Amino acid sequence: MNDVQRVCSRFHAAIELIGARWTGAILRAVFTGRHRYAQIKAAVPGVSDTMLAQRLRTLEDEGVLERRVLPSTPVQVEYHLTPKGRDLDEAMEAVRAWADKWIPAKGPPDESAAGHGG
Amino acid sequence: MNDVQRVCSRFHAAIELIGARWTGAILRAVFTGRHRYAQIKAAVPGVSDTMLAQRLRTLEDEGVLERRVLPSTPVQVEYHLTPKGRDLDEAMEAVRAWADKWIPAKGPPDESAAGHGG
């Protein structure tokens, strides 16, 4: 592999990770202090339990989230960002900021797509 | 659509745009001063003419690149970033920086995957 391909391959692995449906909203929830399953679910409207559980597992497997089982009765499970996960914040915020500025909002017509003045 | 869905939908549009295969390398080439088709192609090893032409067209349609036909003989075509395209730099760099730090390099074993120290 040459350098460009090497960079591309890592870039794509990152894009695949953060671009998976729901992942952005799930990480956003954890970034903003929602650590329990029910809190994360409430912050990601429309996600099914199967999908949310699967995404959380993937993010755990990827080393982005850490699953903590609290020694309580009943047992409480929390999801926390790892250093790798916390580091994602800047990249995701930068994509979000760009999208916010440049991608027209789909929604009621009164929500004007601002930021095209460039 | 609620707010989360609205943000998600824009975020995904952005991810789809920058995450398309070759797009990162193509934009990187233009960002670094390669404006002609042949220069861009040389900077993106492995891309076919069909694919490169298609990607350039999409980026033009999306308003990320501007195609300029220079009044020369023979006609020269150049691709330049629009303000929307220039604004992408930060987001793409942030994703790239994260990937560089956290995604293990696939390649010869002597290329150690640095940056996992957190």
Automatic annotation (TrEMBL), chains A, B:
Residues 8-107 form the HTH hxlR-type domain. It comes from the Bacteria. This is HxlR family transcriptional regulator. The keyword Coiled coil does not apply. InterPro entries: HTH_HxlR, WH-like_DNA-bd_sf, WH_DNA-bd_sf. Coiled coil: none annotated. Keywords: DNA-binding, Transcription, Transcription regulation. The keyword Transcription applies.
